[in-house]
């Protein structure tokens, strides 16, 4: 019989400290995670309805509440502010507490933030479905809903400052750099654009510039830093070895901060905006290859020699899938800024495939990976079913792959045909239908995967199944036990 050495006193003390930190995070983090999964469920339903309406416009048209012009923005906002933002905040809270090496304090601030945020999301989506949308993409919530989000988020920022002040003396980790960047960039983005587009709207083409300054930066300066911070923590932690290069991670952070905020203008290439804005955006988009390559090298070199862990660790499998997708979507985004490609892909489904590659394959899969790691430590119970975890991964991975491939290929063909004046526009619309059917089918895969995760989430909260001696793994033996 194999015997293992007893833990040293310092290791036991570290384990007790981590357990105390996790216990202090339990209520606020689980509250954000629960609300995120709630809104992801409804956001996915809205997505399926909107996708079906692209090929069957008469579907559910008897009710104004369910028309495409309301269901589609309801989906976008439910995912962006109902799922992605609470998931990001929950992960950021836990990472901050762990990296500050101190138990979470002022939990009531975070609970109030979660309640205000979710009230704002509920009011905003209800307003969109009732026909009170602002019609500004990514900012469809009316002002009376947006202010609730802003106040709730302000509470999170205040808590983060208090938490950082109370940290134990020691090293400031790269994940904290990304988290603090995101926590301070988002209120600036959300506040300024709401004031300039909704409260005191500017005039003319400046509206489009500000709209896409926000629409692009909310992805790159809010969701992206949180996901990268999570990956920088999860990959080394699960593998039990340090990140490949601290200096590459710092290069990636500052290059992201420097170049990304200029990228939004490439959505308006060929539009009625100053040429210098378009050119500056193209240059900045290409320069984004610097932080992307630096981050990709760091993740890959950290994984070298440990790829076998992907077979067993659910958190690592989702996180690495997300990290790989970050590289792909970023390189694709830089190429889309080039005028030669942009003139083909602009106004096509190619752009929609690109956005789903970023928001789902990169961000959402990374958040799932973080949740698979964090939640058992909060609940002090392991995931009850390896089968559900594997079903979730393969349904999500295959679903997003089908969606991205179909919209990418269909979008390129659509763009080439739009550039040919001899082809009637209606013929082009008809030819896109098979690709849109594939999109709807892939959406069904994603929805089923999310149902598997939601079921796992409910079961672990209820502490269903028998107590496990170790973590739930995805190997053959673990699968048979489940």
Brief synopsis:
By secondary structure, the chain is an all-alpha fold. It contains 16 helices and no strands. It is globular.
Characterization of this structure:
76% of the residues lie in helices and 0% in strands. By secondary structure, it is mostly helical. It has a domain at 21-170. Helix 1 runs parallel beside helix 3 (107-129). The longest helix is centred in the first third of the chain and has 47 residues, at 9-55.
Which key features would you list for this structure?
disordered C terminus; 482 residues; single chain; 16 helices
Number of helices: 16
What would you call the structural class? mainly alpha
The share of residues in helices is over 70%
What's the mean pLDDT score? 94
**Can you tell me the residue ranges where pLDDT is under 50 for at least 5 consecutive residues?**
477-482
Distance between the termini: 25 Å
Total DSSP E strands: 0
Major sheet attributes: none
Overall radius of gyration: 22 Å
User: Which shape, going by the Cα principal axes?
Assistant: globular
Secondary-structure blueprint:
Layout: H1 9-55, H2 68-100, H3 107-129, H4 143-165, H5 174-199, H6 206-239, H7 246-259, H8 275-287, H9 289-303, H10 314-336, H11 339-345, H12 349-379, H13 386-418, H14 425-431, H15 433-461, H16 476-481
Helix pairs in contact: 1-2, 1-3, 1-12, 1-15, 2-3, 2-4, 2-6, 2-12, 3-4, 4-5, 5-6, 5-7, 6-10, 6-12, 7-9, 9-10, 10-12, 10-13, 12-13, 13-15
